[in-house]
Write the structure tokens for this entry.
Amino acid sequence: MRVRLIIFFLLSGMIARSQNAKHPADKELLYGKDLIARTAYYLGPKGKVAALTNGMNCQNCHNDAGAKFYGLNLMATAATYPQYMPRTGNVMSIAGRINGCFQRSLNGKTLDTRSREMKAMITYIKWLGKDVPKGQKSAGSSVLKLAYMDKAANPIKGKTVFIQKCQVCHGATGVGLLSADQTVYTYPPLWGKHSYNDGAGLYRITTFAAFVKSNMPFGTTYKNPQLTDEEAWNVAAFVNSQPRPHFDQHKDWKDISKKPIDFPFGPYADQFSQSQHKFGPYKPIAYIQKKSITKKA
């Protein structure tokens, strides 16, 4: 793990030095990193390349341009894609996964897979994961999952957490803070028309809770969290109870038995309510799913 941390610390300096390099691959690597860090600058509503997204950046979810431990990092992406995605029912490439984020997390349109921008992002993602063996996940990938509570997450209590810990950056109305030139969000919106839609991964409360526990408020790391587990669960419930764009998901999860336990839209293969699937408690659902899988085996 220490070796990987050193790699992360050297990352910015190594790529920054490539700014002065003349090799095309170095320039594409730098461009790919910048596209993930400043997506809106290039592809937001006022993007210099195209207007495809809501103004958020890939980095708003994939912290430190995808390099932060348990910050939804992208280290394992190249090693694990292409892969079969139960949600869409097909084998998805890295480009397909990026476009899925463009449509859901950035509530936008797909990027041409032949474009320089797509190729540059894939180049950077492959560079991030160059030391990860094919088919394996590196330490610190995705988010550090939280243990399920014995009760449902509480949006009302979550509002208190938001007011105390989150609104100083994201605003009292959760709509974030735009930069002075109105091109990119300094602090991203957590709900409203410019936030991620209800088809995004962060709309699942288990993912949101785990993400904020290891990454929020600003400056948090998985080793030094500022929220308790319960606070993380509750603020996730509050944020994901607020209005946001809708994404047409009627083609998702053709096999409803494959839906994650916290998928907030029915129908389901079990008898638990939509409310319980969204807010919990999740232990009973997880038990039934595990029992069903064991019976099939």
User: Anything to note?
Assistant: Confidence is low (pLDDT under 50) at residues 1-10, 14-19. The chain is about 40% helix and 5% strand.
